[in-house]
């Protein structure tokens, strides 16, 4: 499927509307997430997914989607809010609670995932099925996915050398990215997405790690001056998400409505989520390309130096997990094998090129 057609499908333009007024709404579900509704994940996955559920159910399921934590709590509270029934479902970053879901960090290790969020999400779903179902047994799992290429957005000139990380105060989205930045000589600051723009505006940070997809909604085109990615097909860092529902609420649905949820869950929804990020990355980079901001890619030589530091993080993490009673080496090896298998798939859209390739309009097929 071409990028243009997928964009239309994911945004709902290609989905035929059905008349729902003739049907009683058997259930209304309240879902919550923590980002702007104008960012890629809501536009290309969450809202179309809601419409698909509502249409497939003949209007018997209605889903109310609340962005920016409008129902309360912090982004790190999402899993417990879903588990406890404070909300019926939503988006969770397990890594926002460091130490609680330790095996998930295998997916977030540096240079572990492809830059295609879609293909990374195939690996994430398969890893989740093998290792993480017990971790998430208190909720009903709908999807598990990764975002696309994670990179460094900062004030001032772009990064050119590994040494340029020295002393920079950078937002770190995960524990593993914190370990990486620390080894690179930066000053990592753990911070969820909603706090990032204010920290930049107040001068608390020099920059941070996040996707292009989030750049417009966070005003990174205004708050930062440069955007630096690593060379190659693997991402500097990545973030693992789950899309989950309250278990009791799911269990209370009649079988035919459970089937509607089930048909729109699993690998399909996971791949869809990752593809939504890829489309969002294209949108975000297009916005940045219209500014005077510098868009840069580290040289292959400097990327190799950074990756060598990343390999140290992987080895340290593996040893740490083994000391905790896990098989750290096996977790790393399985992620690599699942990524290799996922890379054999034909993605819905091809977003695996270096960042500079996204600047060409003719690549949006």
From TrEMBL:
Signal sequence annotation: 1-24
InterPro entries (alphabetical): DctP_fam, TRAP_DctP_sf
GO biological process: transmembrane transport
Subcellular location: Periplasm
GO cellular component: periplasmic space
Pfam families registered for this protein in UniProt: DctP (PF03480)
Entry keyword set: Periplasm, Signal
CDD domains reported in the protein's UniProt record: PBP2_TRAP_Dctp3_4
PANTHER family linked to this entry: BLL6794 PROTEIN (PTHR33376:SF15), PTHR33376
Protein name according to UniProt: TRAP transporter substrate-binding protein
Lineage: Bacteria, Pseudomonadati, Pseudomonadota, Alphaproteobacteria, Rhodobacterales
């Amino acid at each position: 499927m071409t990028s243009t057609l997928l964009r239309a499908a994911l945004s709902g333009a290609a989905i035929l509307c059905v008349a729902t007024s003739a049907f009683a709404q058997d259930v209304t579900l309240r879902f919550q997430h923590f980002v702007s509704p104008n960012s890629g994940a809501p536009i290309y996955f969450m809202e179309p997914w809601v419409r698909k559920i509502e249409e497939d159910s003949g209007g018997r399921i209605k889903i109310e989607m609340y962005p920016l934590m409008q129902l309360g709590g912090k982004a790190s509270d999402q899993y417990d809010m879903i588990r406890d029934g404070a909300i019926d479902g939503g988006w969770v970053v397990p890594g926002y609670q460091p130490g609680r879901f330790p095996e998930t960090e295998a997916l977030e290790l540096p240079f572990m995932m492809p830059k295609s969020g879609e293909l990374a999400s195939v690996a994430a779903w398969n890893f989740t099925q093998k290792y993480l179902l017990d971790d998430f047994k208190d909720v009903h799992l709908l999807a598990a996915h990764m975002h696309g290429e994670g990179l460094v957005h900062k004030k001032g000139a772009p990064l050119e050398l590994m040494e340029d990380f020295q002393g920079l105060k950078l937002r770190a989205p995960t524990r593993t990215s914190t370990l990486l930045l620390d080894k690179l000589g930066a000053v990592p600051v753990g911070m969820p997405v909603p706090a990032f723009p204010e920290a930049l505006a107040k001068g608390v940070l020099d920059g941070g790690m996040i996707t292009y997809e989030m750049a417009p909604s966070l005003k990174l085109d205004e708050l930062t001056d440069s955007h630096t990615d690593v060379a190659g097909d693997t991402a500097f860092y990545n973030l693992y998400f789950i899309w989950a529902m309250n278990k009791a609420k799911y269990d209370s649905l009649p079988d035919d409505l459970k089937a509607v949820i089930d048909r729109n869950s699993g690998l399909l929804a996971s791949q869809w989520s990752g593809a939504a990020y890829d489309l969002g990355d294209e949108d975000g980079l297009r916005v940045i390309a219209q500014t005077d901001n510098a868009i840069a890619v580290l040289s292959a030589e400097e990327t190799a130096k950074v990756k060598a530091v990343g390999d140290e993080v992987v080895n340290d993490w593996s040893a740490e997990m083994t000391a905790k009673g896990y098989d750290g080496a096996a977790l790393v090896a399985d992620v690599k094998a699942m990524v290799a298998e996922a890379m054999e798939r034909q993605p819905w859209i091809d977003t695996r090129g270096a960042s500079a390739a996204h600047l060409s309009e003719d690549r949006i097929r």
